């Protein structure tokens, strides 16, 4: 399995290229507005923003992952514990077993989903204290998935916005004797509307 | 922007709800195939930083 995804080479037009460059530069602001559209909806900039999103969506629609790649994302400490409770998944079940009899849940992100091929990037940002639950999501990116490799060297992959991710199973690994719950996710569709 | 913002789902970022379906056998099989590989990669990454 490759550590890093190779670049996708879609046939993008100039506006789609520009939209992708703009996203790379202003990713934080764009994600914030997609997740909180009221911040901009009533402003004059909303029309331009939606046009930009249309170009970025178009770039994504033309782009696919070239090969199978394991991808990762994390969950913040403020919701990790309650999320595992919702799944009926106990963090202390031990290492090694794979559980698929969880209560499946949908995670809906109004923004674009950015995944990393490098779980170390995720672990660095998760709590390391033994009393805090660490949750890492794992997704098997497949050839033909609608996605753009944002940064080949850093292993960053962009998936569509408004995606519904469904949990499919879980396992636990011990790192420094503290559990990290790894939850499998698959995309179960993505939406068109911004707000 | 740091990785904390980019690769972590925070409470305000997402909506969580119970799926209105049960997992298909195919979904379970894919999870059973993928999760052990993912766990290995996570463990190696975690061991590398300790």
What would a concise description of this structure say?
The complex is a heterodimer of chains A (195) and B (50). Chain A is of the alpha+beta class and 195 residues long.
Globular, elongated, flat, extended or rod-shaped: what is the shape of chain A? globular
Which structural class matches the secondary elements of chain B?
alpha+beta
Q: Count of DSSP E strands of chain A? A: 7
Strand content of chain B: 5-15%
Question: End-to-end span of chain A in angstroms?
Answer: 38 Å
Explain this structure:
The termini of chain A are far apart. Chain A folds into 2 domains: 49 residues, no CATH class; 127 residues, Toxin ADP-ribosyltransferase, Chain A, domain 1, CATH 3.90.176. The N terminus of chain A is likely disordered. Chain A is an alpha+beta fold and 195 residues long. Chain A is globular, with a radius of gyration of 18 Å. In chain A, 28% of the residues lie in helices and 34% in strands. The model of chain B has no long low-confidence stretch (mean pLDDT 89). Chain B has 50 residues and is α+β, with helices and mostly antiparallel strands. Chains A and B meet through α1, β1, α3, β3 and α4 of A and α1, β1, β2 and α2 of B.
Notable features of this structure?
A: about 200 residues; 7 strands; about 30% helix; disordered N terminus; B: about 50 residues; alpha+beta; 2 helices
Topology:
The complex is a heterodimer of chains A (195) and B (50).
Chain A: H1 14-35, H2 46-61, E1 69-75, H3 77-87, E2 98-99, E3 105-116, H4 119-123, E4 134-141, E5 148-151, E6 156-175, E7 178-190
Helix pairs in contact in A: 1-2
Chain B: H1 3-6, E1 8-9, E2 15-18, H2 25-49
């Amino acid at each position: 399995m490759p550590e890093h995804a190779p670049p996708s080479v879609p046939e993008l037009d100039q506006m789609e290229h520009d939209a992708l460059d703009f996203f790379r530069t202003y990713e934080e602001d764009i994600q914030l507005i997609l997740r909180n559209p009221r911040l901009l909806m009533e402003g004059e900039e909303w029309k331009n923003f939606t046009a930009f999103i249309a170009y970025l969506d178009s770039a994504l629609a033309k782009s696919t992952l070239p090969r199978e790649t394991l991808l990762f994302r994390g969950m913040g400490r403020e919701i990790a514990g309650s999320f595992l409770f919702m799944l009926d998944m106990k963090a202390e079940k031990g290492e090694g077993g794979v559980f698929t009899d969880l209560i499946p849940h949908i995670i809906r992100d109004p923004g674009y989903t950015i995944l990393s091929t490098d779980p170390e990037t995720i672990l660095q940002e998760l709590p390391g204290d033994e009393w805090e639950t660490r949750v890492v999501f794992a997704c098997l990116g497949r050839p033909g998935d609608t996605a753009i490799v944002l940064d080949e060297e850093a292993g960053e992959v962009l998936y569509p916005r408004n995606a519904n991710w469904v949990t499919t199973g879980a396992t636990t690994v011990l790192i420094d004797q503290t559990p990290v719950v790894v939850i499998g996710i698959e995309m179960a569709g993505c939406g068109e509307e911004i707000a | 922007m740091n990785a904390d913002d980019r690769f972590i789902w925070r409470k305000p970022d997402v909506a969580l709800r119970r799926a209105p379906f049960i997992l298909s056998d195919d979904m379970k099989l894919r999870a059973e195939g993928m999760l052990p590989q993912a766990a290995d990669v996570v463990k190696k990454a975690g061991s590398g930083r300790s």
